[in-house]
Design brief:
Blueprint lengths: L1 E4 L6 H10 L4 E4 L2 H6 L2 E4 L5 H10 L3 H9 L4 E4 L1 H4 L2 E4 L5 E2 L4 E7 L10 E6 L1 E2 L14 E6 L1 E5 L5 E6 L3 E8 L2 E4 L7 H12 L2
Parallel strand pairs: 1-2, 1-3, 3-4, 4-14, 5-7
Antiparallel strand pairs: 5-6, 7-11, 8-10, 9-12, 12-13, 13-14
Length: about 200
């Protein structure tokens, strides 16, 4: 069973519908026991890092997420769900993340002519051939909406980079953990390939 973690910060139904379109059922849940028992977990999210980690803590979901990852179950993070994996987020102060991937979350520091948030379609430069990216070509265009991006301490976890006033990490992959800054569920056929690859792991 695929569990989509509900902490009231993200368009959960869009992610669920994405899995349904590739032939896989996914359950939306905020129940810690459901998350612990799930074969695969998805952590989506849109919004502020501080609010998200506070809501995950309030709903007692932090430990079930960490436990699932430690047990080797496939994990997919989307947008804020990638950022929350880091040690620290710097949105509206300094806030502690899940600490799954060493690194931090920082705001874009780019030329004034480029708008923040980075919003719309942009290309992926594939750095490591994660199995979740199977079938995607170099330069695949996917959909982004974000003002902050992750900076992993260990660059070997970077699966893709994207250029927006300079290269930034747009997806990470380490063992059973894969997470994207972009939205696969909003990235049409190419994004659905990622959801299918994850579901069929």
């Amino acid at each position: 069973m695929i569990a989509i973690i509900d902490y009231q910060m993200g368009n959960l139904r869009s992610v669920q519908k994405g899995f349904e379109r590739v032939g896989h059922a996914a359950e939306i849940s905020s129940d810690p026991d459901v998350i612990r028992k799930a074969d695969k977990i998805v952590l989506p999210g849109v919004g502020a890092f501080e609010d998200a980690i506070a809501e995950l803590t309030r709903r007692e979901l932090v430990e079930p997420i960490r436990e699932s990852i430690q047990r080797g179950r496939p994990f997919l993070g989307i947008c804020l769900g990638l950022q929350l994996l880091m040690d620290v987020g710097h949105e509206n102060g300094r806030h502690t993340g899940l600490g799954v991937i060493p690194g931090e979350v920082v705001r874009f520091d780019i030329a004034r002519e480029l708008k923040v948030p980075h919003m719309g379609w942009n290309e992926l430069a594939i750095r490591r051939p994660a199995p979740q990216l199977a079938g995607l070509a170099e330069g695949t265009r996917v959909y982004f909406v974000h003002s902050y991006h992750v900076v992993p301490k260990d660059r070997s976890v970077i699966a893709t980079e994207t250029d927006y006033g300079g290269l930034f990490c747009s997806a990470i992959w380490r063992d059973n953990v894969f997470a994207t800054q972009f939205h696969p569920e909003k990235s049409q056929a190419e994004g659905l390939k990622i959801l299918r690859n994850f579901a069929e792991m």
